[in-house]
Amino acid sequence: MLLINCPYCEETLPELEFAYAGEAHIDRPADPSALTDEEWRDFLFIRTNARGTHFERWRHIGCGRFFNAARDTVSDRFLTTYKAGQPRPDLKEAAE
Amino acid sequence: MNMQEHDFATAPVQIKELADLVRFSLRVRPEHRADMAAALAMELPQKVGDRAGFATGETLCLGPDEWLILTTEPAALVDAAREAYARLPHSLTEISDREITLRLTGPQVLDLLATGCPRDIEALAEGRAVRTVFDSATVVLWRDGPAEFRMDIWRSFAPHVRSLLAQAEAELIAGL
Ligand SMILES: [Zn+2]
C-alpha cells in the first residue's frame, strides 16, 4: 500500500485514508464567458497525462483537506506533498 | 440491533454502545481560532488530532479549520457562538444524531481495530483522536487509554461496521 504524507496533519498515512482528485495547478478562468469553446474545452478536459512526474491533487479524509502531490506515474513513488495554494516545488531539492 | 456484552474479565474485547451524546461541528478560519476559543470559553487545539477538555465537555481538532465539540450544555454553547457571530464568522452545527458512539475496550482491542483500520492504531497516542476509516466507512477514533477507545460511526454505516466488529470479536474469542 502507498504511504502518503499529509502536509496538514504532518503524518505519513496509508493510501486508504486519501482520495485522488485529478491534476493540480489548473486555475479556473476568471471570466469563463470571455473564453472560446476551444479554450473552455481545454480547461475542462485537456490534461497533461504525464509519463513521469505528475502534479496532482489529493484529499485526506482525516483532516478533510485538499493538498497537492508530485508523484512519478511510472514508479508510483510520491516525490513530495505540499499544501494547496503553494507553487510547484523544486523537485531537485525534494529528491535530495 | 443489540451487541452481546461480555462482562467477564477474560473477554478479549468489549463493545458497548454509549448513550446519546450532544455533538457540534465547528468550522472557523485558522486566523479566528484563538478568538473563537476565547468567545466559547474552551480550548480549540491547533494540531490535527489534539483534544482539550473544558468545563462541560471536550473539543477535538479534526482539521485546520474544523473542530468537533462534545458538550452537556448545548444551549450555553449556542448562545456564546451567536454572541460572537458578527465579529467571528463561523459555522456551528449540531450533529448529535449523525453518529453513534461505541466504546471499545479489552486486552485485544488493538487487534480488533486492526481488522478494519489501515492506520497504525498502536501509534495513536493516548488522549488523541483522529478521523480515519474502518473498512472504508469514515469514523472518528478516540484513544482514551492503552486499551480503551471510542469510535463515532455515521448512522448509515453503523450496521456494516458493527457486523464486522462482531465478526472480529467472535474470531478473537475463538482464538483465531
Ligand atoms: Zn490530513
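Chain B touches chain A at residues 48-49, 62-64, 66, 118-119, 130-133, 136, 138 (CB under 8 Å).
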